[in-house]
Specification:
Layout (H helix, E strand, L loop, with lengths): L4 E3 L6 E3 L17 H8 L4 E4 L6 E2 L16 E4 L3 E10 L12 E8 L4 E7 L11 E8 L6 E6 L2
Parallel strand pairs: 8-10
Antiparallel strand pairs: 1-2, 3-4, 3-5, 6-7, 6-9, 7-8, 9-10
Length: 154
């Protein structure tokens, strides 16, 4: 068997091992949550709330996964104060982030919202600590100009 045909570890079936790079660009429909991106560009972080059962979501959802409601969700600004639940420093980055230096990501719990947010931790926080007070902030990322939210000190 040629060296580029290998056995799949799970199924033991032969598979072609292709060493070419594959660039993928995603087109994700966002028409039902577009308000989130419009608000983000203005520095406001929005969540969604189901008008039927009251379930709240971040990131915003176009429908309610709790009760199945599929009509218009309510958008509301999040109270972004909370505390850091966990974090990790990223050294081995996926290719799409290879142009960035090492970075730290974390999960912040928004206390009044009772929601968790996964985000990059602002580089001004040199020594993040579990339990530290945080706030979620919005700014344009200097590397690519994208509007992003991140975990910062209050």
């Amino acid at each position: 068997m040629p060296g580029y045909i290998v056995k799949d570890e799970k199924t033991k079936n032969p598979v072609l091992l292709d060493l070419r790079e594959l660039d993928i660009k995603y087109r994700i429909p966002v028409s039902r949550i577009e308000k989130f991106y419009q608000a983000l560009d203005q520095g406001i972080i929005m969540g969604t709330k189901c008008p039927v059962c009251g379930a709240r979501f971040f990131p915003p959802q176009a429908w309610c996964s709790d009760c199945g409601y599929s009509g218009e969700m309510e958008f509301y600004p999040l109270d972004t104060h909370g505390h850091l639940m966990t974090f990790t420093k990223i050294f081995a980055k996926p290719k799409s982030f290879s142009s960035f230096g090492d970075y730290t990501v974390g999960i912040a719990h928004l206390d009044k919202e009772d929601l968790n947010i996964l985000a990059w931790i602002d580089e001004s926080i040199q020594k993040p600590e579990v339990g530290m007070e945080t706030v979620i902030k919005v700014e344009k990322r200097k590397e690519d100009g994208a509007t992003v939210y991140f975990i910062a000190s209050p």
